[in-house]
Amino acid sequence: TNGTCETMATRWQARIDQARAGDSQADMTNVERYYDADAHNEWARLDRDRIEFAVTLRALDEYLPSAPSRVLDIGGGPGRYAIELARRGYDVTLADISEVELSLATEKAAEAGVRLSSVVKADARELRQFEDGAFDAVLLMGPLYHLIEDSDRRRAIAETVRVARAGGIVMATNITRYAAIRFWAKRDPMQVVDHRAVYEQQIATGKTPNAVGFTDMYLMRPAELAALFEDASLVHIVTVACEGVVSMIREKLNELDGEPWDYWVDLNYRLGKDPDTHGLAEHLVYVGRKT
Protein backbone atom coordinates (compact mmCIF):
# COMPACT_ATOMS: atom_id res chain seq x y z
CA THR A 1 0.00 0.00 0.00
CA ASN A 2 2.73 2.46 0.94
CA GLY A 3 4.60 1.63 -2.25
CA THR A 4 1.51 2.33 -4.33
CA CYS A 5 0.93 5.68 -2.61
CA GLU A 6 4.59 6.67 -3.00
CA THR A 7 4.41 5.87 -6.72
CA MET A 8 1.26 7.99 -7.05
CA ALA A 9 2.96 10.85 -5.19
CA THR A 10 5.97 10.70 -7.51
CA ARG A 11 3.69 10.72 -10.56
CA TRP A 12 1.73 13.70 -9.28
CA GLN A 13 4.94 15.62 -8.46
CA ALA A 14 6.14 15.08 -12.03
CA ARG A 15 2.81 16.40 -13.34
CA ILE A 16 3.03 19.42 -11.04
CA ASP A 17 6.54 20.25 -12.26
CA GLN A 18 5.40 19.91 -15.86
CA ALA A 19 2.32 22.05 -15.30
CA ARG A 20 4.33 24.78 -13.61
CA ALA A 21 6.67 25.09 -16.59
CA GLY A 22 6.17 27.86 -19.14
CA ASP A 23 3.03 29.97 -18.96
CA SER A 24 0.70 27.36 -17.49
CA GLN A 25 -0.07 29.55 -14.47
CA ALA A 26 -2.03 31.87 -16.73
CA ASP A 27 -4.50 29.03 -17.41
CA MET A 28 -5.12 28.27 -13.74
CA THR A 29 -8.26 29.44 -11.96
CA ASN A 30 -8.11 31.62 -8.83
CA VAL A 31 -9.27 28.63 -6.81
CA GLU A 32 -6.61 26.33 -8.21
CA ARG A 33 -3.89 28.93 -7.55
CA TYR A 34 -5.05 29.42 -3.97
CA TYR A 35 -4.99 25.74 -3.04
CA ASP A 36 -1.78 25.03 -4.93
CA ALA A 37 -0.08 27.82 -3.00
CA ASP A 38 -0.74 26.39 0.47
CA ALA A 39 -2.04 22.84 0.40
CA HIS A 40 -0.93 22.13 3.96
CA ASN A 41 -3.18 24.87 5.33
CA GLU A 42 -6.27 23.00 4.16
CA TRP A 43 -5.03 19.84 5.88
CA ALA A 44 -4.31 21.73 9.12
CA ARG A 45 -7.59 23.66 9.03
CA LEU A 46 -9.55 20.65 10.25
CA ASP A 47 -7.17 20.27 13.18
CA ARG A 48 -8.10 23.80 14.18
CA ASP A 49 -11.80 23.19 13.44
CA ARG A 50 -12.12 19.86 15.25
CA ILE A 51 -15.87 20.16 15.77
CA GLU A 52 -16.55 20.67 12.04
CA PHE A 53 -14.45 17.62 11.21
CA ALA A 54 -15.94 15.40 13.91
CA VAL A 55 -19.56 16.37 13.20
CA THR A 56 -19.11 15.87 9.46
CA LEU A 57 -17.61 12.43 10.10
CA ARG A 58 -20.66 11.60 12.22
CA ALA A 59 -22.89 12.48 9.26
CA LEU A 60 -20.78 10.33 6.95
CA ASP A 61 -20.94 7.42 9.40
CA GLU A 62 -24.72 7.71 9.73
CA TYR A 63 -25.75 8.19 6.11
CA LEU A 64 -23.18 6.57 3.82
CA PRO A 65 -23.88 3.02 2.68
CA SER A 66 -21.73 0.45 4.44
CA ALA A 67 -18.15 -0.26 3.40
CA PRO A 68 -16.72 -1.29 1.01
CA SER A 69 -19.08 0.89 -1.07
CA ARG A 70 -17.57 3.05 -3.81
CA VAL A 71 -17.27 6.72 -2.81
CA LEU A 72 -16.22 9.68 -4.95
CA ASP A 73 -14.90 12.67 -2.99
CA ILE A 74 -15.08 15.69 -5.33
CA GLY A 75 -13.04 18.67 -4.22
CA GLY A 76 -11.65 16.71 -1.30
CA GLY A 77 -8.32 18.58 -1.37
CA PRO A 78 -5.64 16.90 0.74
CA GLY A 79 -7.93 13.98 1.51
CA ARG A 80 -8.94 14.44 5.15
CA TYR A 81 -12.31 12.76 4.62
CA ALA A 82 -11.14 10.45 1.82
CA ILE A 83 -8.42 9.00 4.03
CA GLU A 84 -10.80 8.54 6.98
CA LEU A 85 -13.27 6.72 4.73
CA ALA A 86 -10.52 4.53 3.27
CA ARG A 87 -9.49 3.71 6.85
CA ARG A 88 -13.09 2.58 7.43
CA GLY A 89 -12.86 0.19 4.46
CA TYR A 90 -14.47 2.24 1.69
CA ASP A 91 -13.33 2.16 -1.93
CA VAL A 92 -12.51 5.89 -2.31
CA THR A 93 -11.70 7.96 -5.36
CA LEU A 94 -10.41 11.45 -4.60
CA ALA A 95 -10.85 14.22 -7.18
CA ASP A 96 -9.71 17.83 -6.92
CA ILE A 97 -8.76 20.77 -9.11
CA SER A 98 -5.43 21.27 -7.30
CA GLU A 99 -2.59 18.94 -8.21
CA VAL A 100 -0.62 20.06 -5.16
CA GLU A 101 -3.49 19.09 -2.86
CA LEU A 102 -3.71 15.72 -4.60
CA SER A 103 0.01 15.16 -4.17
CA LEU A 104 -0.31 15.95 -0.47
CA ALA A 105 -3.26 13.55 -0.22
CA THR A 106 -1.19 10.67 -1.58
CA GLU A 107 1.55 11.46 0.93
CA LYS A 108 -0.91 11.59 3.82
CA ALA A 109 -2.56 8.34 2.70
CA ALA A 110 0.86 6.65 2.70
CA GLU A 111 1.57 7.98 6.19
CA ALA A 112 -1.79 6.63 7.37
CA GLY A 113 -1.15 3.26 5.75
CA VAL A 114 -4.35 3.36 3.68
CA ARG A 115 -5.01 3.09 -0.03
CA LEU A 116 -7.01 5.53 -2.13
CA SER A 117 -8.39 3.67 -5.14
CA SER A 118 -7.75 6.58 -7.47
CA VAL A 119 -6.53 10.18 -7.30
CA VAL A 120 -7.79 12.30 -10.19
CA LYS A 121 -7.42 15.94 -11.22
CA ALA A 122 -10.93 17.11 -12.06
CA ASP A 123 -13.20 20.14 -12.17
CA ALA A 124 -16.47 19.57 -10.30
CA ARG A 125 -18.39 21.05 -13.25
CA GLU A 126 -17.09 18.44 -15.71
CA LEU A 127 -16.57 14.91 -14.42
CA ARG A 128 -16.14 13.25 -17.80
CA GLN A 129 -13.62 10.82 -16.28
CA PHE A 130 -16.48 9.03 -14.51
CA GLU A 131 -19.37 7.03 -15.93
CA ASP A 132 -23.03 7.50 -15.07
CA GLY A 133 -23.98 5.80 -11.80
CA ALA A 134 -20.42 4.72 -11.04
CA PHE A 135 -20.47 5.42 -7.30
CA ASP A 136 -22.58 4.36 -4.33
CA ALA A 137 -22.02 7.75 -2.71
CA VAL A 138 -20.68 11.08 -3.95
CA LEU A 139 -19.33 13.90 -1.77
CA LEU A 140 -19.31 17.51 -3.00
CA MET A 141 -17.88 19.04 0.14
CA GLY A 142 -16.13 22.19 -1.05
CA PRO A 143 -16.68 23.19 -4.68
CA LEU A 144 -20.09 24.84 -4.22
CA TYR A 145 -18.68 27.69 -2.16
CA HIS A 146 -16.08 28.50 -4.81
CA LEU A 147 -18.48 28.59 -7.77
CA ILE A 148 -19.72 32.17 -7.90
CA GLU A 149 -22.22 31.75 -10.73
CA ASP A 150 -25.47 29.86 -10.24
CA SER A 151 -25.03 28.11 -13.60
CA ASP A 152 -21.68 26.67 -12.47
CA ARG A 153 -23.13 25.45 -9.18
CA ARG A 154 -25.94 23.72 -11.03
CA ARG A 155 -23.48 22.11 -13.46
CA ALA A 156 -21.47 20.75 -10.51
CA ILE A 157 -24.62 19.37 -8.88
CA ALA A 158 -25.81 17.80 -12.14
CA GLU A 159 -22.45 16.06 -12.56
CA THR A 160 -22.42 14.94 -8.93
CA VAL A 161 -25.87 13.38 -9.26
CA ARG A 162 -25.05 11.86 -12.65
CA VAL A 163 -22.15 9.80 -11.33
CA ALA A 164 -24.13 8.54 -8.30
CA ARG A 165 -26.05 5.30 -8.74
CA ALA A 166 -29.81 5.16 -8.34
CA GLY A 167 -30.49 5.00 -4.62
CA GLY A 168 -27.02 6.35 -3.89
CA ILE A 169 -26.19 9.04 -1.34
CA VAL A 170 -25.10 12.57 -2.24
CA MET A 171 -23.59 14.85 0.40
CA ALA A 172 -22.68 18.50 -0.25
CA THR A 173 -21.47 21.42 1.86
CA ASN A 174 -21.74 25.18 1.69
CA ILE A 175 -20.56 28.17 3.70
CA THR A 176 -23.40 30.23 5.11
CA ARG A 177 -24.18 33.79 4.01
CA TYR A 178 -22.97 35.64 7.13
CA ALA A 179 -20.01 33.42 8.04
CA ALA A 180 -17.40 35.88 6.76
CA ILE A 181 -19.03 38.84 8.52
CA ARG A 182 -18.95 36.93 11.79
CA PHE A 183 -15.36 35.83 11.13
CA TRP A 184 -14.16 39.41 10.77
CA ALA A 185 -16.27 40.64 13.69
CA LYS A 186 -14.28 38.28 15.88
CA ARG A 187 -10.82 38.77 14.37
CA ASP A 188 -10.62 42.23 12.78
CA PRO A 189 -13.81 44.35 12.67
CA MET A 190 -12.06 47.09 10.69
CA GLN A 191 -11.75 44.72 7.72
CA VAL A 192 -15.49 45.14 7.13
CA VAL A 193 -15.53 48.84 8.04
CA ASP A 194 -12.67 49.63 5.63
CA HIS A 195 -14.14 47.56 2.77
CA ARG A 196 -17.84 48.21 3.17
CA ALA A 197 -18.73 47.91 -0.51
CA VAL A 198 -17.18 44.43 -0.70
CA TYR A 199 -19.11 43.14 2.30
CA GLU A 200 -22.36 44.87 1.43
CA GLN A 201 -22.14 43.08 -1.94
CA GLN A 202 -21.40 39.83 -0.15
CA ILE A 203 -24.42 40.26 2.13
CA ALA A 204 -26.70 41.10 -0.81
CA THR A 205 -25.47 38.57 -3.38
CA GLY A 206 -23.24 36.05 -1.59
CA LYS A 207 -20.48 36.72 -4.13
CA THR A 208 -16.91 37.71 -3.28
CA PRO A 209 -14.29 37.21 -6.01
CA ASN A 210 -10.79 36.79 -4.54
CA ALA A 211 -11.90 37.24 -0.94
CA VAL A 212 -9.26 38.53 1.48
CA GLY A 213 -7.23 35.62 2.82
CA PHE A 214 -9.18 33.18 0.69
CA THR A 215 -10.22 32.94 -2.97
CA ASP A 216 -13.41 33.13 -5.08
CA MET A 217 -16.24 32.61 -2.63
CA TYR A 218 -20.01 32.20 -2.79
CA LEU A 219 -21.81 32.24 0.55
CA MET A 220 -25.22 30.61 0.53
CA ARG A 221 -28.39 31.11 2.57
CA PRO A 222 -29.43 27.85 4.31
CA ALA A 223 -32.59 27.50 2.22
CA GLU A 224 -30.58 27.69 -1.01
CA LEU A 225 -28.65 24.50 -0.37
CA ALA A 226 -31.64 22.15 -0.41
CA ALA A 227 -33.31 24.21 -3.15
CA LEU A 228 -30.33 23.63 -5.45
CA PHE A 229 -30.98 19.90 -5.29
CA GLU A 230 -34.77 20.00 -5.65
CA ASP A 231 -34.58 19.65 -9.44
CA ALA A 232 -31.71 17.16 -9.37
CA SER A 233 -33.54 13.85 -8.80
CA LEU A 234 -32.65 13.78 -5.11
CA VAL A 235 -34.78 13.22 -2.03
CA HIS A 236 -33.62 15.39 0.87
CA ILE A 237 -32.75 13.40 3.99
CA VAL A 238 -31.22 15.94 6.37
CA THR A 239 -29.15 19.12 6.57
CA VAL A 240 -26.67 19.43 9.44
CA ALA A 241 -24.89 22.51 10.78
CA CYS A 242 -21.30 21.29 11.00
CA GLU A 243 -20.39 23.55 13.93
CA GLY A 244 -23.68 22.97 15.72
CA VAL A 245 -24.18 25.78 18.24
CA VAL A 246 -20.48 26.57 18.80
CA SER A 247 -19.60 28.42 15.60
CA MET A 248 -16.85 30.98 16.36
CA ILE A 249 -16.81 30.02 20.07
CA ARG A 250 -15.17 26.60 19.98
CA GLU A 251 -11.67 27.35 21.29
CA LYS A 252 -12.31 25.86 24.74
CA LEU A 253 -13.84 22.76 23.15
CA ASN A 254 -10.62 22.18 21.21
CA GLU A 255 -8.89 21.63 24.57
CA LEU A 256 -11.16 18.70 25.43
CA ASP A 257 -10.52 14.99 24.94
CA GLY A 258 -12.11 11.73 25.99
CA GLU A 259 -15.70 11.55 27.23
CA PRO A 260 -16.23 15.36 27.51
CA TRP A 261 -15.13 15.80 23.89
CA ASP A 262 -17.34 12.93 22.73
CA TYR A 263 -20.30 14.45 24.53
CA TRP A 264 -19.83 17.85 22.85
CA VAL A 265 -19.48 16.23 19.43
CA ASP A 266 -22.70 14.30 20.01
CA LEU A 267 -24.48 17.41 21.32
CA ASN A 268 -23.46 19.52 18.33
CA TYR A 269 -24.36 16.77 15.89
CA ARG A 270 -27.85 16.48 17.39
CA LEU A 271 -28.38 20.23 17.58
CA GLY A 272 -26.90 20.68 14.11
CA LYS A 273 -29.91 18.88 12.67
CA ASP A 274 -32.20 21.56 14.11
CA PRO A 275 -32.89 24.20 11.39
CA ASP A 276 -32.70 26.88 14.08
CA THR A 277 -28.90 26.37 14.14
CA HIS A 278 -28.35 26.56 10.40
CA GLY A 279 -28.03 30.29 9.88
CA LEU A 280 -25.44 30.74 12.62
CA ALA A 281 -23.12 27.89 11.65
CA GLU A 282 -20.24 28.39 9.21
CA HIS A 283 -20.77 25.19 7.22
CA LEU A 284 -23.83 23.11 6.40
CA VAL A 285 -23.81 19.58 5.01
CA TYR A 286 -26.74 18.46 2.86
CA VAL A 287 -27.60 14.75 2.63
CA GLY A 288 -29.86 13.40 -0.12
CA ARG A 289 -30.67 10.16 -1.88
CA LYS A 290 -30.78 9.79 -5.66
CA THR A 291 -34.17 8.58 -6.87
Describe the overall structure.
The chain is α/β, with parallel strands linked by helices. The chain has helices at 2-20, 30-37, 39-48, 50-63, 80-87, 99-112, 150-163, 179-187, 190-194, 196-205, 222-229, 258-272, and strands spanning 70-74, 91-96, 118-121, 135-140, 164-175, 207-208, 217-218, 234-241, 283-290. The strands form 2 sheets. A 7-stranded mixed β-sheet has the order 3-2-1-4-5-9-8, with helices on both faces. Strands 6-7 form a two-stranded antiparallel sheet. Helix 6 (99-112) links the parallel strand 2 and strand 3 (118-121).
Blueprint of the fold:
Elements: H1 2-20, H2 30-37, H3 39-48, H4 50-63, E1 70-74, H5 80-87, E2 91-96, H6 99-112, E3 118-121, E4 135-140, H7 150-163, E5 164-175, H8 179-187, H9 190-194, H10 196-205, E6 207-208, E7 217-218, H11 222-229, E8 234-241, H12 258-272, E9 283-290
Parallel strand pairs: 1-2, 1-4, 2-3, 4-5
Antiparallel strand pairs: 5-9, 6-7, 8-9
Q: Biggest sheet, strands in spatial order? A: 3-2-1-4-5-9-8
From the N-terminal CA to the C-terminal CA, the straight-line distance is 36 Å
Return the average pLDDT rounded to an integer. Answer: 91
State the secondary-structure class: alpha/beta
User: In angstroms, what is the radius of gyration?
Assistant: 18 Å
Strand content: 15-25%
Share of helix, binned: 40-55%
Shape: globular
Strand elements, count: 9
Instruction: Give the ordered list of helices and strands.
Output: HHHHEHEHEEHEHHHEEHEHE
Count of helical stretches: 12
Low-confidence stretches: 1-26
